[in-house]
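Sample 3 of the quickstart, ligand protoporphyrin IX containing FE:
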Amino acid sequence: MSTLLPPPAEIAKIPVDWVEERSGLISFGKFMLFRNVPKDISWLQTLGSALITVFILQATTGIVLAMYYQPDPDTAWNTIKFITDDATLGWLVRGMHKWGSSVMVVLLFLHMGRTFLFGAYKYPREMTWITGAIIFILVMGMSFTGYLLVFDERAYWATVVGVNINGTAPILGPTLSYILMVGPEISTHTLSRFYALHMLVLPSAIGGLIALHLWLVIRLGVTSPPWSRMQSNEGDV
Ligand code: HEM
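Result:
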């Protein structure tokens, strides 16, 4: 008996072909995901992908936390307490965000160490290293600005110490401290500024730089280990 319907696999292809024909997004996705890599790469080359995963988790848990958090010195700590004790699975989301930040810093050091020891910062990958170094500084900024948001005694005094350390930098130090605190001391404005930096400015900058970093990785290919006997670093499957 013949049927008029095409097989399910063909039906599933219809929306995919529709998107591809109009945007080219499917072939772009394939170009980004399916590439030749050296034969002798190892788990060490997965640290960058682990970092992307943690960044996405931090962004997702951060969005959930922002749905409850209020950046006001009178209520900030109470909203954190509400998230931890009362909101559904709030303790889990907050815990993931807090521990995820430490995991991200550890992974950053491991990934930087791997790329450094493999000599992957050398020609032609200098820009990959430079974009990575800027991401590193911005991630440190995320840790610093995030710490104050809890607004308990520890967060307050840790930030005072951090801002004072910044203030000791030559020439720009005092101005930087003033800009960070929005005045000579920590106030309501400081909390709003740290919140804006933590929620908007730094994550957007990090996201954009990760995209550039990945584009460079895709364009230049992944470096073989220094002990590799292979001549070429690109396209050796
Ligand atoms: C959120 C931060 C970062 C993300 C998501 C990220 C992501 C990646 C990914 C996916 C790769 C390719 C796979 C791999 O080698 O692991 C890579 C390679 C690379 N990354 Fe990063 N990275 C980050 C931070 C950094 C930092 C801080 C540096 C150095 C300062 C750096 C320098 C490099 C270099 C030089 C390569 C090329 C490695 C090679 O060719 O073998 N990255 N990165």
